[in-house]
Amino acid sequence: MINTRYSSQLLEKAVMEINRLPGIGSKTALRLALHLLRQDEERVEALAESLVEMRRGVHYCQVCHNICDDERCEICSNPSRDASLVCVVENVQDVMAIENTMQYRGLYHVLGGVISPMDGIGPSDLQIESLVERVRQGGVEEVILALSPTMEGDTTNYYIYRKLEEIGVNQVPSASDRREERKVKVTVIARGIAQNDELQYTDEVTLGRALAGRVPFGG
User: Fold this and answer.
1) Interatomic CA distance for residues 90 and 157, integer angstroms
2) Which CA distances in Å does 120 have to 25, 129, 130, 140, 205?
3) Which strand (E) or helix (H) includes residue 44?
4) Are residues 119 and 107 in the same domain?
5) Is residue 96 a contact partner of residue 68, using CB atoms and an 8 Å limit?
6) Whole-angstrom distance, CA of residue 67 vs CA of residue 39
7) How do residues 150-176 score in pLDDT, each as one tens digit?
């Protein structure tokens, strides 16, 4: 039976699906659906095909967990990037935000979120163990914690710091055994970003300065 709000069940179905997208209310969903109805059929088909291709073809980088079209993303595959620097971020949007500053030439590690007990997200739900393994394998000289300055972000920073500390990061070697020396250090971006701000919404100048002014993480 046709809903009284719509003259077409097909339109209603399209609106309902668009309404599922984050930040899209029912009125906006209706406006978008009506806009698509006014477009040429070829344009709408191109949009639909691109979305299906994206869902089927996009992968997560085996190294940093950024989105890509192959097994490794373009950043990890770029020999001109500084592989000794690993910037830890919450999500893919944060990678894009930092790249837009054009002030960072290292690699990334995308956690896929932050520790949030209220939302049922624990350390095992994030890409933290793979980060620890990257550091353990060697070649990384600095881990930059670039999470949003929220309570959840700070909690995640501290957890990561403790996990890296367990494998010897920042530990001073004894004079009798120089083989135990580890050069990896952990830093955190400067607090030029307002407390509780999302990193991806920070302007490029402020974000660039926060990266450049990073300081040692004190745990």
Assistant:
1) 11
2) 26, 18, 20, 31, 34
3) helix 41-57
4) yes
5) no
6) 30
7) 889 989 999 999 999 888 755 445 455
**Chain-centroid distance, C-alpha 166:** 24
46-52 CB contacts, 8 Å cutoff, 24+ apart: none
Residue 139 backbone class (left: φ over 0; alpha: ψ -120 to 50; beta: rest): left
Domain limits for position 172:
60-216
Q: Provide the domain count of the chain.
A: 2
Place of tokens 């079209």: 69
Question: Do 52 and 67 belong to one domain?
Answer: no
- Residue 133 burial class via C-beta count within 10 angstroms: exposed 0-12, middle 13-18, buried 19 and up: exposed
Tokens of 11: 């339109």
Task: Judge whether 2 lies within some domain.
Answer: no
pTM summary value: 0.76
d(CA 88, CA 42): 41
The token pair at 23 is 């930040």
Rounded-to-integer distance, Cα 138 and Cα 16, Å: 49
- Domain containing residue 95: CATH number: 3.40.1360.10
Q: What does the pLDDT look like over 84-96, one tens digit per residue?
A: 999 999 999 999 9
